[in-house]
Amino acid sequence: MFEKHKQAKTDKLISMLNIQAISLKKKFDSINDWIELHIDSDPNLSEMITCICNYGELVAAYNHVYKKYNTYPIVERASDQLLNYEKVGYNSNIGLNIFKATHYAIPYINNTIKETTCSLKRMMELREDHELFRDEAVNMFLDPIYSSALCAEFAIENEKGSELRTKVLAKCGGIYNYIHQEKRNNKNFLYDNEVEFNQLKKDFQNYISVSKKQQFVSDIDNMIDKIDKNYLYSENEPKKIVYHAKKTFR
């Protein structure tokens, strides 16, 4: 009876998350349609990062439900290995191995979230050949965010922490994207939006103070340093932002 209750609770929560996944897929598809019509345009890195964060938080919520109620899907296969699943037993009556999903399987756990995952991947594929993604700083910043989203490793945050994490990550990407664009025509270009940069650093400090997990703090700190190196009002020896991380995931 208790197991049935857990499964019923899981099914109800997953159904609610599926509704969010459908909405997110529509958002991604709309962006992808625009990109395909303007394939020679520059990427909007701020928008892309926001999409990745939205997706990462949703997939993490799926994983949280399965983990909380210990109801990760079980499958039986003849093979000894199954990608993104762990072997937990063997059914001798029918000669099949028993596998249990891990968090790596969450993006593909049902057709609804799988379709949303495919739409996000399509967004990345449409832009992967753009010269922006040959910039080492962009790849170093984007890779841990994107891989954490696809692996359902986004940390569950309080509402304010989640909001600030997305805001700061997206703004970092947006500012650096702008600097990159300007430097194509003027290698000596220096970013000079003092109000915007100061607000970014303020939001970063706020994120550190309210976040329980402080995920991507080192990545943000490194990108702010990259921006500062291209900042008109930078000091000769810019001071690193000081923080005391409770737990750093990357």
What is the fold's blueprint, element by element?
Blueprint: H1 2-37, H2 45-68, E1 74-77, E2 85-91, E3 96-101, H3 111-127, H4 136-150, H5 159-185, H6 194-210, H7 217-228
Antiparallel strand pairs: 1-3, 2-3
Helix pairs in contact: 1-2, 1-3, 2-3, 2-4, 2-5, 4-7, 5-6, 5-7
Explain what this protein looks like in three dimensions.
This protein is mostly helical and 250 residues long. It is 59% helix and 7% strand. It is built from seven helices and three strands, in the order ααβββααααα. It has a three-stranded antiparallel β-sheet, with no helix packed on it. Strand 2 (85-91) and strand 3 (96-101) form a beta hairpin. Helix 1 packs parallel to helix 3, helix 2 runs antiparallel to helix 3 (111-127) and helix 5 packs antiparallel against helix 6. It is elongated and about 70 Å long. The protein starts with a helix and ends in a 22-residue tail after the last helix. The model is unreliable at 238-250 (pLDDT under 50).
